[in-house]
Structures are given as C-alpha cells and as structure tokens.
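Page 37, continued from 36.
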C-alpha cells in the first residue's frame, strides 16, 4: 500500500482556491514544529505531543524525497506558506489507514476544509 502523491490527493480532495497540498521536507521540520505549537498549544500533552519532536519526523514520518514510512503528513499551503497539516498512519498488516491529526492555523480556520475530515475516499482509493 503506497501513499498518495500530492497530485492524487489534490484530485481526491480538492482544496479551496489559493490552497495547495505539500509534503513536509526534513529542512522544514523545526519551523513546522514551532508552527504546530502556535496553532495548537494544548498538543504538548497527550498522544499528539509526538508531533513536537524532531526525532518523530526523522524516524517515523514519510518526508519529501525520502523513503516511505507508515506516517504521512500532508501540508496545507496558502500562497506558498504552510497553514496547516493533515496526518495519517497506515497499518500494512491489516491494510488499514487512520487519521492521526489535523491542525489548521487559526487565521485560516474559517476556510471550509470540513470536507477533508473523512479519509474514507482516500482509503478506498488505496485498496482499489
């Protein structure tokens, strides 16, 4: 089971005008962690706190231009700036995938991204 490309994701779940998907690169990780802290301060406690550690990304996340791993982070970009993220984890042994976290910068929260909250279509597309 391979991850969707940026183009496949855009076809499957189109974003509003001015928004695009991206894949996190190794060089973006430190600034991305700081952005998540600002967007979602409560994340420092609980299961999502792993998204605040660089080693999590380097060891577990599929980063741009690197080997696929079992956790995917798609970035939401607006005019080239990272304004959010959507993450999933795949379980190859059960051929399943589940959503881990979605965070949107508060300034972009009014944009209607609610149609993205279900990964059903993405999961079905991967099995086909």
């Amino acid at each position: 089971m391979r991850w969707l490309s940026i183009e496949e994701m855009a076809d499957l779940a189109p974003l509003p005008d001015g928004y695009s998907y991206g894949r996190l690169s190794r060089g973006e990780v430190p600034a991305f962690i700081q952005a998540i802290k600002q967007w979602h301060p409560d994340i420092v406690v609980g299961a999502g706190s792993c998204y605040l550690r660089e080693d999590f990304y380097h060891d577990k996340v599929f980063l741009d231009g690197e080997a696929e791993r079992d956790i995917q982070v798609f970035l939401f970009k607006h005019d080239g700036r990272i304004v959010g993220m959507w993450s999933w984890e795949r379980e190859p042994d059960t051929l399943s995938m589940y959503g881990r976290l979605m965070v949107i910068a508060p300034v972009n929260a009014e944009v209607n991204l609610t149609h993205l909250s279900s990964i059903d279509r993405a999961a079905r597309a991967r099995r086909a």
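The chain is about 25% helix and 25% strand. Flag for discussion at group meeting. The beta strands are 19-23, 61-62, 71-78, 81-91, 96-104.
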